[in-house]
Amino acid sequence: MRTRHRNWTVPGAAAAFLVCAGASAGFQPVYEIPSLGGLNTGAWTVNNAGQVGGWTRDGSNAAFPVLWEDGVMTVLDIHPTRQAVIEDINNNGELVGRLVGGGQPERGFYYSGGVTSLLEPASGNPNHWTTASGINDFGQIVGSGQVDGPNEFQAYIWQAGTGSPTDSVPQISDVGAGFYAGHKINNSGQITGFHDSNIEPWIPWRGFTYDGTESVSLPVLGDDGSFSEAWGINDAGKITGYSDTNLFFDTRAFLYDGDTMINLGTLGGNFSSGFAVNNLDWVVGDSSNDAGDLRAFLWRDGVMMDLNDYVDPDSGWVLQRARDVSDTGWVVGLGQLNGEPRGFVLYIPSPGTAAICMIGLLAGARRRRD
Q1: Strands (E), 48-190
Q2: What pLDDT digit, counting tens, does each position of 337-355 carry?
Q3: pLDDT average, residue stretch 4-27
């Protein structure tokens, strides 16, 4: 089934005018991933062209994968009998995710040009599951696959167009065997994820990165008993995720550059988590505020900002979880629209955009007078 639902369309110069108008007014418009009659929708991933991968639900509450672009939502035929969860999109518009339901194990997939390819487990056991969590612009896919034995699952890299993994992510020697999950991959082939350990006494799970040669645990913001998880990674190898700080469920989003782990703080509450970082070092995620409410955040230039500060308070929107950010300023995630759970798409102008827009609009007015 392919369905197109027009919510808004802002082509060419009209889009530029809308962005400029929002910047000069201090608020930005929020665009909805519409429902097909179900309880909720979501926006999970975005590329530099503003293509958004997410999901919607129908009246029976069945979930459908969608591609949202220029105000048009398209329901994707990723699989004829199984539901699909989209996890990532690259700048070529290629999608990855996982198939769920249908009485079968979860299976990672790659989708491009209307064609779906499944990612098979390295074990060769058809009853084992796989996932696909990230894809870079060269078609390298990172995810996880079930394995035999006590380790349960491991991180793998696939190449688009191939069903079998092309690289098994090695375990870290000083933490012992355990399970490894792969999350995201940058254009240099570096991946993020988290690992557990089977060494006693128990070692908490930790974020890790793999550069094609070696897997390395990330530091933590607390002591040796702290846990962490690594999520987004940009092309410079900077990583965001979360780590606890020795207080129970007192976590902080971080930005790690390979040497220093920066504590990004919170919006006033006791936890935050980073989920994506773009090539401008903008980090997005979610945090509790001083009232204990969950809010989506943007961190840039050393400051964590509530994304709701960019939104007209009379719009009906509350942005709760930011899940991805493009190099071009598009942010996507999950929120509430008039109390209904909805995926959101938001454009965040770079600092100085309002002034640049004013110059452009004045120049356009002069051209019209000429």
Answers
A1: 52-57, 63-69, 72-75, 83-89, 95-100, 107-112, 115-118, 130-135, 140-146, 153-159, 167-168, 180-185
A2: 999 999 999 999 987 654 4
A3: 46
Q: What is the mean pLDDT of the chain?
A: 86
Q: For residues 285 and 232, give the distance between their C-alpha atoms in angstroms, rounded to a whole number.
A: 10
Question: pTM to 2 decimals?
Answer: 0.87
Q: What is the CATH number of the domain that holds 112?
A: 2.120.10.30
The answer to whether the peptide bond before residue 201 is cis (omega within 30 degrees of 0) is: yes
Residues 50 and 328: their CA atoms lie apart, in Å, by: 8
Closest CA to 327 of 139, 46, 96: 46
What's the domain range around 133?
4-369
Of 153, 150, 155, the closest CA to residue 134 belongs to 155
Length of the chain: 370
Place of tokens 């919607």: 56
The answer to whether the beta carbons of residues 274 and 242 sit under 8 Å apart is: yes
Give CA–CA dist 342/46, Å, rounded.
16
Give the residue from 89, 141, 95 showing the smallest Cα distance to 120. 141
The tally of domains found in the chain comes to 1
**Which tokens hold the place of 125?**
């056991």
